[in-house]
Fold this protein.
Amino acid sequence: MDCPICLMKVEKTQEHKLSCGHMFHKECISQWVRDNMNCPMCRKVSRMENLIYYPQDSTNVEYSIDETWTTKISDIEFGGLVFKKPCQQLINQCPQGYINAHRCGNQALGCVYNLTSSNGKRVKIDYFLRQLILFYRVDVTKIVTISEYSDRYFSSEQRIESNYYTVEKGIYTYFAEFIFERMKGKLGKKYQVYYSKNANSLIMDLVTITMKGLTRESNANPLLITSIHSIVKLLEGKTISNESMSEYASCKPIELQSMIEEQKTFCSQVTLL
């Protein structure tokens, strides 16, 4: 059959079938849903949570950081595969694709990353499982496969309780949504911020590191907005004002300063390429 978007023949290895039954080239439908969260034929699919959008360039040419901040686990096993040095594989890897990340009804994108097993098989994991591997102790019994469409990636149903925060998929989905909406929305436009493919990874990593260092209970928004500020300043040399951060985090400026100071240590160990 022919792809309804480009009108070219769809080979078996190139096809992507939506839940409504319509078939397209994977690349064609990936481009379509960047701006239209529905099926171009019937308009019935309003959200495609598990469809991976593939970027044209997935090479990190912006920064390098060592494993100092990570768990440094030697290997991890899930999906019948063994992955050696997963932190080393992930820490400097930029997003290899994007999936929908929305908890509050917005159309935000979260990242997926590659892990290569000891026998050379490459799989994809989402933004939440990446954080668990890099910065927490992973419960492999909670790792799940998501494959509603022709793409497949791994995530986790793990939940970790702390005195000051809870680690779970829903929280990190909110993080991904907040970062995407602010960087692509009014905040990014106001400060002429370039939302690079690596910015999301660095911001999410900094959110986790800052969160793990909390000594008192805190709302998530100050964590997020200060992490955005610190990475924007690192990558682009631009400073988001205290007034803007306070507005977007719904808090007082004084609540943000201690977090920004703590984040300077992490930022100082990121080498720009």
